[in-house]
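thought: fold this chain, then report.
action: predict
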Amino acid sequence: YNFKFAPKNEKELEQTHKIIEAFKFHMLPSMTQDQQFFLTPSQFRITYMYRGKGNNYIPKIAKCVLTDMEINYAPGNKFTTLKPDDEGASPQIIDMQLQFKEMAIITKESAAGGY
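observation:
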């Protein structure tokens, strides 16, 4: 999944960075309290919608995990920033690419059910 962020104001800029931080947080594992083992990262449910209902022309996606997230702060090989604030100078345009992996094996039977 590819997303391009081009925030037009301070509120959109804040939301852009919150979205990026949320995906990064949920793709990472956590540790058990005794720091002995990793716990699995968050699972996602992705659905394709059309006018408030599921879009049956696109196959369903089983529960999945975010396996890779790439952030490009200089799309088009040109790095530009917005006006600096107390946090620094945010990039003007940010490309985010997400790659998910389904947690279930898709079989003929599940494919017949829309997966």
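thought: worth noting. The CA atoms of residues 5 and 96 lie 8 Å apart.
final: tokens above.
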